[in-house]
Amino acid sequence: MFGKRQPLICRLTTQAGFSLIELVVVIVVIGILLSMAMQSMEGLVKDARRAKTEREMEMLAKAIVGNPDIAGGGGRSDFGYVGDIGAFPSNLQALYQNPGYGTWNGPYILPGLTQDSTGFKIDEWGKAYTYSGGTTITSTGSGTTISKKIADATTDYLLNTVNGTIMDANDSLPGATYADSVDIKITIPDGSGSTTIKTYHPDSTGTFTLDSLPVGTHLLQLVYTPDVDTLTRYVTVLPRHKGQLSYQFASEFSAGGGTPGSEILRPDGTGSVTGLVASGCASNFQCVDEISSDDDATYVERASNSYATDVYSLGNPSASSGTIDSVVVHCQTKKEHTQGNVCPTLYVSSTEYNGTEQTLTTSYADYSQMWSTNPNTSAAWNWTEINNLQAGVKIKGQNSGKPAYCTQVWVEVFYID
């Protein structure tokens, strides 16, 4: 009833695999896709590096000349390194580390760039930025040049002009009589880490021009010398600036019950102190006695970083009566290089009296000091003292090859007749 059992047979089916050609094609496709992905990734990384480098260069530029978007007191308040020093830095390190300047107020770079003392000077490819005191910062780490222009010219930030007018309490202009009795003094950084005071006078219409000013907020003093009426203000100088200011004294130009007058006294002989070296003339006083400055034609000099003094006898004034208001000593002086200072000097009753130390610039400028009383007696001046007065200059330079020079000295006596 049962048939013969048949043997069990298992059938194994096989499927064909990838051929060698197919595998090669797949590998090639994967390689192409990986190559495209790598190229895309490299492009993204390069773009990110470029963007970050450009941001860093922008921050470095603002550290040098300031951020115009930062304001205070109703106006721009940030002028960076240039606003404090009066010059562009010679290198980027000066933005982080004080090069030895008294007016340096850094660091000027943002905290994000100062994780170490050198990283802010290197672009995102690890190559140093190129900067040597000019108006452009350059990165070449990408293989191409990336540039950041700081300014069109350094003069945009260093040589600006402010115009103004000055009147008295009655809105009167000084006229020819009183114009020389108004001193306009602005204190600015000198480019070498100190400050200098530039002195101007208005014309007969009360108009004055303050020139060659660096950007920043600077102390301005306007003094009507007969009454010692002083206005103290701060003026903000912007890049490519030609501002217009207006000021008014509390006193009247003709106040005081008399007629204001002034006398100019110039050197006419050797004084009691001779410590400077003459150039271009036989006697020291002849180097500084001209009515109009001859600059480097004749001058006295000090080729050392220690002070030396010259004082000179002065011609007598034509006036001999009236109340003497003040005596002002003027020195037309400059330095040869980065160091140089001046103190206008009086010599009274065999004693030398020096004015405030002022830092020189590398161009001749008028440095002055006013004495409203006789420094020897602390009393009002009299005409006998004026007739016996000697005055001069105390200066120092940097070293034997970089002196300080004085080319002109004169004394102005203000009085009410």
Order of helices and strands: HEEHEEHEHEEEEEEEEEEEEEEEEHEE
What's the CATH topology name of the largest domain? Jelly Rolls
**Number of discrete domains:** 3
Helix content: 10-25%
What do these coordinates show?
The chain is of the alpha+beta class. The protein folds into 3 domains: 53-155, no CATH class; 159-255, Immunoglobulin-like (Sandwich); 256-417, Jelly Rolls (Sandwich). It has 5 helices and 23 strands. It has helices at 20-65, 80-85, 155-158, 175-178, 383-387, and strands spanning 71-72, 75-76, 136-139, 146-149, 160-167, 182-189, 195-200, 207-213, 216-224, 229-237, 242-248, 260-265, 267-274, 277-279, 299-302, 308-314, 323-335, 341-348, 351-354, 358-359, 365-371, 390-396, 404-416. Strands 12, 14, 15, 17, 21 and 23 form a 6-stranded antiparallel β-sheet that branches. Strands 13, 16, 18, 19, 20 and 22 form a 6-stranded antiparallel β-sheet that branches. A 4-stranded antiparallel β-sheet has the order 7-6-9-10. A hairpin with a 2-residue loop joins strand 1 and strand 2 (75-76). The mean pLDDT is 88.
